[in-house]
Amino acid sequence: MTSGPTPTSPSAFGVYVHWPFCLSKCPYCDFNSHVRHAAVDEKRFARAFAREIEVTAARTGPRDVTSIFLGGGTPSLMHPETVGAILDAIGAHWRCSGDVEVTLEANPTSVEATRFAGYRAAGVNRVSLGVQALDDAALKMLGRLHSAREALDAVAIARRVFDRYSFDLIYARPGQTPASWAAELQLAITEAAEHLSLYQLTIEEETPFFSLHAAGKLPTPDEATARTLYDVTQEVCGRHGLPAYEISNHARPGAECRHNLVYWRGEQYAGIGPGAHGRLDLGGIRHATATERRPESWLMRVEASGHGLITDDVLSSEERADEFLLMGLRLAEGIDPASYAALAGRGLDPRRIELLRDEGAIAVEADGRLRVTQSGFPVLDAVVADLAA
Q1: What is the model's pTM?
Q2: Rounded to whole angstroms, what are the CA distances from 378 to 238, 247, 349, 361?
Q3: Of 140, 194, 212, 349, which sees the most CB atoms within 10 A?
Q4: Among the CATH numbers 3.20.20.70, 1.10.10.10, 1.20.1250.20, 3.60.70.12, which is that of 13-262?
């Protein structure tokens, strides 16, 4: 990856690249992912990614890229040469910091794991593996194409190839008990060097799981059990040195995913590829961008006009403040209320802060920072809504 112009801002700046293709669609997934039975023309898509990067960089001007995230979809379906071409395009149009974090999401199958060395040579220095469960029956229920053994083998390959790696697990699955989850989580921690992403199963509209759940064919844990599973997650991870730094992400100190911190701290990032979102400050104004979701339509837009943008909204001060609150309170470090006030033009209501503190949902630190407590995280949406009112 080469380096481009000198940056004008010392702030963190991320680049998110969306590869929209998957081998199959998981029944719980509502992400922008698509199954194609014919081979994807990777060279054509790589040229389009490079073109959209070029046009986006012309809008932003010189920036210092601190993190790159190749998400999806399933980016590990790309050949390493395609990944290398995308990273080279980023480096040609923006300057990449010397310690830039470059993450690629990967499925933990044996076929994709054989590409890890190629991704490392292309410039990837961190992988995030979609393990999702370490139980074969659960993996089948979740629609995953790998076994638990295959997943652990892929994690072992990632450990050899990359200094940094992470993997995801889904809990609060049908029939899951706190004891079985604690055992599965402890096994995961023995395999995870520094980072785990642990998500409670959510039933999203327009997914097969939504229909099954509505028909009573997919029973999920009740509220009390889900809360117990959350508490087990915090206790087991904390005891093993991987505390939550965000509501669903756990890491050893210093091993947090720097790219995701860009989102949660309200920093800027460019969204590249089908269905990618971005947040860019242009001329001192925050823009919320989004590209065409359908891969082939995005491709034709980029080939015709250099970009796939379909949304480029200017965010008001109030909208920026709401995003800052919503994203920042996901973090264990919380937010600085003064930063919120600077964005919103008004401070948070001290009476609401006092009430939520009395209820044990938030804490106010000695330096004035506001953070959600472990008791408050399971009702985070309500806490944010109350503070923002």
Answers
A1: 0.94
A2: 17, 9, 22, 9
A3: 194
A4: 3.20.20.70
